[in-house]
Amino acid sequence: MKNHFVKLNPRALTLTSLLLVSALSTTQLTGCFTVGQEFAANHVPEIKIGQTRKQDISELFGTPWRTGMEDGKPTWTYGIYKYALFGGTDSQDLLIRFDAQGIVRSYTFSTTRK
């Protein structure tokens, strides 16, 4: 059995590597990326300050994308942020602030969608 090896020119190999890296970089630059997760924004009007509970919010929107604290009180964030180098941004977010009993004390909803 005879072995067949192809001898590569180091200059050709470097050029091939450079072209591959350039192609991958261009794909990343012209593409888009998304952060967060979709949520049912059509349910935002159902939120009632002083009445809606954490359990109600979970049933309406699911698991929050982020959780945190503001002034010692829990906050939940639902959000989707789509960025593209060409074509602009498509985003919407909902920040819900709860009191110590888990009742909505305020919320903010923002969107770039039409």
How would you describe what is shown here?
The chain is α+β, with helices and mostly antiparallel strands and 114 residues long. It has a single domain (29-111), classed as Beta-lactamase Inhibitory Protein, Chain:B, domain 1, CATH 3.30.1450. Helix content is 25%, strand content 35%. It has helices at 10-30, 54-61, and strands at residues 32-36, 66-70, 73-84, 89-98, 104-111. The model has no long low-confidence stretch (mean pLDDT 83). This is Outer membrane protein assembly factor BamE domain-containing protein.
Task: Fill in the keyword field for this structure.
signal, five-stranded antiparallel sheet, BamE-like, 25% helix, 2 helices, alpha+beta, Beta-lactamase Inhibitory Protein, Chain:B, domain 1, single chain, 5 strands, Outer membrane protein assembly factor BamE domain-containing protein, membrane, 114 residues
Q: What's the short story on this structure?
A:
This protein is of the alpha+beta class. The chain contains two helices and five strands, in the order αβαββββ.
